[in-house]
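Reply to dn_fold:

You asked what the input looked like. This is it:
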Amino acid sequence: MASFIIRRLIASIFVLFAATFLMYILTALSGDPLEDLRQGNAPNKAELIEARTKLLNLDVAPPLRYFLWLGGIFRGDFGVSIQNQPVNALLGNAITSTLTLVTTATVVAIIMGLTVGIISALRQYTGFDYSVTLLAFLFFSLPIFWVAVLLKQYGAIQMNNWLAEPTIAIPVIVVISLVTGVLWMSLLGGRAKRRLIVFGIATVSTAAVLTYLSATQWFADPSIGIVVYSASAIGIAFGVTAISTGLRNRRALYASLAVALIGIGLYYPMVNYILNGMTLWFFLVLAVLAIVVSGLIGFFMGGADRGPVVRTTAIVGFLTAGLIALDKYMSYWEVYANSSRVRGRPIATVGASTPGLGGNFWIQGIDLYTHLLLPTIAIILISFASYTRYSRASLLEVMNQDYIRTARAKGLTQRTVVVRHAFRNALIPITTIIAFDVGAIVGGAVITETVFGWTGMGRLFIDGLSAHDPNPVMAFFVITGTLAVVFNLIADIVYAGLDPRIKVG
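and this is what came back:
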């Protein structure tokens, strides 16, 4: 393994050197960085041209200029831009903005795509499978700029109009309830009688919930409350245990329920006292503490099967703690929406924050989420389609293998066959796709950033090309190229971890 990593790193370094040299030459020959000065009418035009020439070493031939730039890279200096701004500072701001925007979207798209793709494969040739296939191809073919514009019109402008008086019309309730019933019926499957029962329960439940939310105008001042939180926490305990270890593992189930009950007991102290005066670092400490304590509960209650139990309780603890944090965020929604800066238009269409908003940790968090909402949805819709198709195809291929039929012949449950045997091997080809996408995260979503007014890596790259400014372009290329190489290497190592038959060496 060590020799393989060293060989790959050495080869990757030479590839990066060659790629950066070629990119630098192409950028240097793409246009004249002095064009704006030559066309200007400034009285000191000659002095300005001379100053920029010295600043960017334009009097040196591009091949030799590349080595001057490379020397700065070895010192950790990406040089300066045409406006004499340090590229390191521009790069730091751009990376932060892009990570904020794209990381969340990519993680959610991966989780949703894998989940829906797996369910689609297990429900092959059903109504659910056909619907997912249709939506996947539809989302994949949609141009991102058109999706972004539609989201700004209907996801922000029309939604803000509706939030002024958030009542749901009866025809809308009927349509949403019927769609939800069909979705659950297709998802759970089974015989005709079972599907009809699931359809009826899901439709009536959805209609009742939507009617209650409309009558109480819940969206104007949302909250979870102790009753809904308790039911959700217990549901999370059962759901996570069913997927992680199976409900037959009583130790895992009891440990998960213990974590859920502790969360219920801590609900009022957390919401009313502990979470007041919150800071980012304290928030992260509480999140880590929730995971650690939940894992310890699984460790002491897990008996001989501690590993799966610890994993299960840690996930349950994280999700139940997240529900408490979500409820705290909701308690400040009305204050945020009616503030003098937001003025009843909470869903933002441009930028990363509301200028001059102020407020505490929770209000600033809501402001970040409302600005992230639309661009995140735009990126998710496009990425979700590819992950769904790849995961479905990969799992279908694995499910037809001989060892899966052998596992079923041995009497293993469907959950064990899918989760422990099929899913792990189905992840091998998907790992390649995820590695490339994660490596490209910092590259930014150029069109999305442009439409929604985010100044990230994509905008840095485009602005550098437009101004014939080589240093920001090369900074973008070095960061994204290095990440692509690193995550490609990580993917090769993960292959060996997912399938012991693969020998990296």
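The chain is about 75% helix and 0% strand.
Hope that clears it up.
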